[in-house]
Each structure stands twice: as structure tokens, then as C-alpha cells.
Write a structure and sequence with these properties.
By secondary structure, the chain is α/β, with parallel strands linked by helices. The chain has four domains: 4-18 and 181-210 and 224-282 and 291-304, Molybdenum Cofactor Biosythetic Enzyme, Chain A; 21-44 and 145-179, Molybdopterin biosynthesis moea protein, domain 2; 48-139, Molybdopterin biosynthesis moea protein, domain 3 (Molybdopterin biosynthesis moeA protein, domain 3), CATH 2.170.190.11; 336-408, Beta-clip, CATH 2.40.340.10. It contains seven helices and 28 strands. A six-stranded mixed beta sheet has the order 7-4-6-5-9-8, with no helix packed on it. A six-stranded mixed beta sheet has the order 16-13-17-21-20-18, sandwiched between helices. Strands 22-25-24-26-28 form a five-stranded mixed beta barrel. Strand 8 (117-119) and strand 9 form a beta hairpin. The chain is elongated, with a radius of gyration of 32 Å.
Length: 413
């Protein structure tokens, strides 16, 4: 058996190269950028008003105060979207301007509407009276203060979210180059499996929850998932035929659950080898999920995951998901640290992935509670957890107050 870090190194070494495709921004939500997205223009494109008020020339207000006032002739009103051109500009003039409207040539500052004094009346003003100095650039949004031309809007390897689409649209970016979506197929194996929708089952049978989880978890990551169905232990030729067919298709990753240990009916390792796959590892020093296997054939990758539900969950979260990030050119997922609330012991050379509950104390610090029922066949802790505690090799005893690396139960990006 190899260590978890050695397994990840082998996965990265054998990762696939995923193609690229240019698509419209409307289709790009949750896709991974294949190149830096660059701003083609400034944003805002022109200086504009940050406030409803009156545009003025700041130097024309110099020396004004409550005892020394000046009237400014009102030329016109400009709203957001109006042409800001002024044909009849004269000294000591003003423009009524709305938030977002482009600041016309000549003017360089804004007097907020709340501070305006109208002449001769508010209902029919011809002028405003200014009784203070107005600093240059007050309440002005500057051209390019948000984005300059050639600024990076989104970096290569990042996932496109709705907030990015807003920036793309505002900047006039119509298309983006993205990575193609990895395609994964999953088969559940075992004589004990029955359809999870079946109401009444025999005590010696198990509803196939693995396939539904695998498919749903992949979908939550916006991957292209295919449910290959269930295969009985005595139907190995059926699975072999199905996999052989998929090897010739556009499937990137093939995965199974069950039949990977060393028992009488654990047929997966043997016939995966018969199909031409080269084993990269078989067995990793982790808990749960120790019997996991990983193989490669040309541009196809295969994961044989253990049949116990939590072992399968760990296999996807800590082996397949890192592979997917690598294939898509994403950075390594960042962990966070939390202070342990209860003690834990394990074999020193093993890495354990535990279902935990993370909370924040009154000081805002992360605290980690290991939930009861960590066995690989028990589901309750999975439903009650919100993160994974990663208890790395090199240490056998963890005491209360120790800091432990963690990852969210479901990747955020």
C-alpha cells in the first residue's frame, strides 16, 4: 500500500488533458476558464455622477461661503443614458445630473441635490445658488476606476459564477474560452444491490444508494455524469463488455463500487487488467476506503472504489475530485484549520478522513467536533456533518485543542 500523498502524486502524473471550447457567456455558468479573461475596455467608460445633483466647475466656486454666494444658470437636465454633449455652455453654468449620467465636458464636480438652493423657486428654477466651495471631483466616478483596458477579469482555472457574468456583460465580453466538461460513468456492483426505489426488500439485500450519490455529487460539481447501472457479481462479463464499449467512447473517467478487495467475488482488478489498463496503485493507507484502485489505459482513467457507502464518498471527494481539478487546470483545493474539540487516535502511517461538524466560537475561531459513527457503512454522520477533518499520517494521537486541516463536505469551487 502507498500513502495518500503518493496516491495523489500518481493521480496528478496520470491526469488527462481536457480540450477547450469557445462559448457564449450565456452558456458559461459553472464552466472553468481555459485562459485569462481580459477586459477589452475601461469601466466605467466615462466619468459619471455618483449622486443626483448639479454638475459644476470647481474653480468657479472658489471663495464662496454663506456671505459670498453665486448663482449658476441651469442649462439642462441629464439622466443616465442621455447624450452629455452641451452646446450652450457658458461660464457660471450648471447641469442637473442624475446618478450614472456621464459628466459633460467642462464640468469636474458634483453638488448633491440635498445641498442645492434653487432660484427663484424650487418648482421653476432658472439657477441654483451656491454658498460653499466645492472640491474638484466630488461625487464623480472616474473612467476606468473599476477596470482598465487589459485588466484581468477572471483568471485561468477559475470557475465562472453569476457575478463574473455581470462583469463580462458590462465590459462587452461576449465569449469565453472554457475547458470541456469531463464525462464520468459509474457502475455499482454486487449481488446484494437492488434498486433504491424498491419499497420492500429482503434483509440480505441493500438498496443501491451508491449510484445515486455518485451521480448526484458529480452533478453538483457540474460534471457530465452517466449512471451505468448495477452489475451482479456473476455478471462480470456484462460489465467487461460495457467497459470495453465505453473505452471506445468519449468517456474520460470510468468508476465502479465494490469487488475491489481480495475476496472470492472481487473480480474488478483482474478484468480491468484484461482490458489493458495499467495499475497505478491498489490500496492506499487511508480510512475509510483503503482498497481503492486506480488504473490507466491510453486516454481513459479507471477508479475501483470500495462498496461501503462512506468509502465511496471518500473515494470521490479525495481522489476523483482532485483529479478533476487537475484535468480542468484548477489550483489545488485549499484547506482550512480548525481546533479539535474531542480527542482521536489512529495508526501513525495512515490518513483518516472523518465526518465532522465545524462551528465558530464567540471569537470567530473554527472549532471541530468529530461526529459519532465513523464506520464506513454508517450514514448518519454524513448527513449531520458539514466538513471533513483530515487526520494526516505521521501522528497517531490527536488531543483536544490540536489544529486539524479541514475541507468542506461539498467543494465550494
Amino acid at each position: 500500500m502507498i500513502s495518500y500523498s503518493e496516491a495523489i502524486n500518481l493521480i496528478n502524473k496520470n491526469s488527462l488533458t481536457i480540450g477547450k471550447k469557445r462559448i457564449s457567456i450565456e452558456q458559461s455558468l459553472h464552466r472553468v476558464c481555459a485562459e485569462n479573461v481580459i477586459s477589452p475596455s475601461k469601466y466605467p467608460s466615462s466619468n459619471n455622477s455618483a449622486f443626483d445633483g448639479f454638475a459644476l466647475v470647481s474653480k468657479e466656486t472658489k471663495g464662496l461661503n454663506s456671505k459670498k454666494t453665486k448663482k449658476f444658470k441651469l442649462l439642462k437636465t441629464i439622466a443616465a443614458g442621455d447624450n452629455p454633449k452641451i452646446k450652450n455652455y457658458k461660464k457660471d453654468s450648471t447641469i442637473e445630473i442624475m446618478t450614472g449620467a456621464v459628466l459633460p465636458k467642462h464640468f469636474d464636480t458634483i453638488l448633491p441635490v440635498e445641498n442645492a438652493k434653487y432660484f427663484p423657486s424650487k418648482s421653476k428654477p432658472t439657477h441654483i445658488v451656491v454658498d460653499r466651495e466645492i472640491k474638484k471631483n466630488s461625487y464623480v466616478r472616474f473612467s476606468g476606476e473599476d477596470y482598465q483596458t487589459k485588466d484581468i477579469v477572471l483568471k485561468k482555472g477559475e470557475i465562472i459564477q453569476a457575478n463574473h457574468l455581470m462583469a463580462f456583460a458590462a465590459l462587452g465580453i461576449k465569449t469565453v474560452l472554457v475547458k470541456k466538461i469531463p464525462k464520468i460513468i459509474f457502475f455499482g456492483t454486487g449481488n446484494e444491490l437492488v434498486d433504491y426505489r424498491k419499497k420492500n426488500i429482503s434483509p440480505w439485500k441493500v438498496r443501491n444508494s451508491n449510484s445515486l450519490y455518485f451521480y448526484s455529487f458529480g452533478k453538483s460539481l457540474h460534471l457530465e455524469m452517466i449512471d451505468g447501472g448495477m452489475v451482479k457479481d456473476n455478471q462480470s462479463n456484462k460489465l467487461k463488455t460495457a467497459l470495453k464499449k465505453k473505452i471506445l467512447s468519449d468517456i474520460d473517467v470510468l468508476a465502479t463500487s465494490g469487488a475491489v478487495s481480495a475476496g472470492k467475488f472481487d473480480f474488478i482488478p483482474k478484468f480491468i487488467k484484461q482490458l489493458g489498463f495499467t495499475s497505478q496503485f491498489k490500496g492506499v493507507k487511508i480510512k475509510p476506503g483503503k482498497p481503492i484502485m486506480f488504473s490507466k489505459y491510453k486516454k481513459k482513467l479507471f477508479f475501483g472504489l470500495p462498496g461501503n457507502p462512506i468509502s465511496l464518498v471518500v473515494g470521490f471527494r479525495f481522489f476523483i475530485y482532485p483529479l478533476i481539478r487537475n484535468m480542468l487546470g484548477m489550483n489545488k483545493e485549499k484547506t482550512f484549520r480548525a481546533k479539535l474539540l474531542n480527542k482521536y487516535s489512529k495508526k501513525e502511517d495512515f490518513t483518516h478522513f472523518l465526518r465532522c461538524s465545524m462551528t465558530r466560537n464567540q471569537k470567530g475561531h473554527c472549532e471541530l467536533k468529530i461526529l459519532k459513527g465513523q464506520q464506513s457503512n454508517k450514514l448518519k454522520a454524513l448527513t449531520e456533518s458539514n466538513c471533513w477533518g483530515i487526520f494526516k499520517k505521521g501522528k497517531s494521537k490527536f488531543k483536544q485543542g490540536d489544529f486539524v486541516e479541514c475541507l468542506p463536505l461539498i467543494p465550494s469551487s
